[in-house]
Amino acid sequence: MTIGALAAETHDGRTAGDRSFLFVLGSSRPDGNTEILARAAAEQLPADVPRHWVDLARLPLPDFQDGRHEGEGWPVGENEEALRRATLAATDIVLASPLYWYTLSAQTKRYLDYWSGWMAAPGSDFQERMAGRTLWGVTAMASRDDAVAAGLETTLHHSAAYLGMRFGGLLCGSASRPGQVRDDAAALVRAKTFFQREAPLARFPHARGLSGTEQA
Fold first, then answer.
1. Residue 100 DSSP symbol
2. CA-CA distance, 212 to 216, in Å (whole number)?
3. How far is the C-alpha of 109 from the C-alpha of 29, rounded, in Å?
4. Are the C-beta atoms of 30 and 98 separated by less than 8 Å?
């Protein structure tokens, strides 16, 4: 998927005040359970809220190369630049990843790894621009116990805390076979109000209860 194709997936509604959602799909399976659940939640957004959908399986990226200490860094590919621009264009970023080995899928983890490169790029203001935005998570897993996804939720929460973002939480659904999440009535009910919930500023556990001066 190129920059033009990515732009073509923009939702038609562009009259919203100050919110724009980027849904990052991290499944290896097209139209998977996690995507179904994410789209169920997205349907509840006001019609005039812009939203982009990016399928990482259709937006191939090379494995992340850490060039922070190599002077000039690394060449930026077209797909990487498209993804960076889409990320910075959104006020709300939704990582929709199935639960693989109790954490993010490989595609989704690679996307977060690229955040490290975007922060370290010469002259980058990526970290400053991400501060104050909101990170959300959506996942489907075989278990019906949401606690099984605690590792994934911690990854997202701490990533948000590191960048000074807000964290809206994790929407979990139970499914294994294709389309099975549609049978999880409780998850579909939670999806109706998921994006209406408060998204507090993410803070590391050791920073909670500290004053602004102490945190600095």
1. B
2. 6
3. 16
4. no
By three-state DSSP, how is residue 103 classified? strand
pLDDT digits (tens, 9 = 90+) for 40-89: 999 999 999 999 999 999 987 877 876 665 655 566 778 889 999 999 99
Strands of the chain (E only): list them: 21-25, 51-55, 92-96, 134-141, 166-174
Q: How far is CA 93 from CA 24, 66, 144, in A?
A: 7, 23, 25
Tokens in use for 130?
Answer: 């991400």
Contact status, residue 56 vs residue 108, Cβ threshold 8 Å: yes
Closest CA to 167 of 140, 190, 197: 197
Q: How far is CA 145 from CA 17, 112, 149, 162, in A?
A: 37, 26, 8, 27
Q: Helix, strand, or coil here: 49?
A: coil
The reported pTM is 0.85
